[in-house]
């Protein structure tokens, strides 16, 4: 779609001013947002590494060779450092770069799955409370207050220690515990929209409640939903890393970044890179997701659409 032309006010005959199309304005906002570009770029790199870990990894993440244990990374000026293991090996002789690549899969999978579960729960409760109000709002607020009174990490530790730890247990526990932000934001956004003219017009035309919610309410709170989703995905990744570090998250020999930090804590004063590398990976992933969420919020904000 080409740019439209409008005659200039007070200009000479035949002069025109090019007015950017909506698509051009959107591209300008996207590429003008440094945080969004950086966050998206880092996240795409991590997605690529996770998706093609089996192709680009130099070895098997579970392959243990004790004769090659604790080989330092290549930037260490020692004879043991070798390009066969660019990031070195751990205390069991497993290639650290390979485990880092495969660990990206676990972090992204847990973060996305937990965010999806919590998003469905929190968005449903928040939209229903905001749209119907009254007793529905009171019930949802009671459930929300109850949830906020429970510290996430302590409840997660208690539940996982009682029923046992596994990848899917961690996902469901986190998904059922971090929906509160979705509920609060979606309720607030729905309250602002439910009395606007286009919703009243849909009600006057006899549209069903569910059709109004799905076709009128949800599209107009989508930008809020995307931003909260990115924040909760980062939150879930950090919680998984914390649980794995404490021994109640993903269990060995899975290459979880939090578990890699936990396994290396006894060597942190002797081989600090064993903790620094997975710690930096967690930091980079969480930072990228947060930058992406902030950038989406800035790009989609109504005041920035001109």
Q: Care to describe what's here?
A:
This protein has a two-stranded antiparallel ribbon with strand order 1-2. It is built from 13 helices and 2 strands. It has one domain: MetI-like (MetI-like fold), CATH 1.10.3720.10. Helix content is 64%, strand content 2%. It starts with a strand and ends in a 6-residue tail after the last helix. With 306 residues, the protein is mainly α. Residues 1-5 have low confidence and may be disordered. It is globular. Helix 7 (167-175) packs across helix 11.
> In terms of structural class, how would the helical and strand content be classed?
mainly alpha
SSE arrangement, N to C = EEHHHHHHHHHHHHH
Strand order of the largest sheet: 1-2
Cα gyration radius (Å): 25 Å
Present the secondary structure layout.
Elements: E1 4-6, E2 17-19, H1 22-31, H2 34-51, H3 53-56, H4 96-132, H5 134-148, H6 152-163, H7 167-175, H8 180-193, H9 197-204, H10 209-217, H11 222-245, H12 257-264, H13 273-300
Antiparallel strand pairs: 1-2
Helix pairs in contact: 2-4, 2-13, 4-5, 4-7, 4-8, 4-11, 6-7, 7-11, 8-11, 9-10, 11-12, 11-13, 12-13
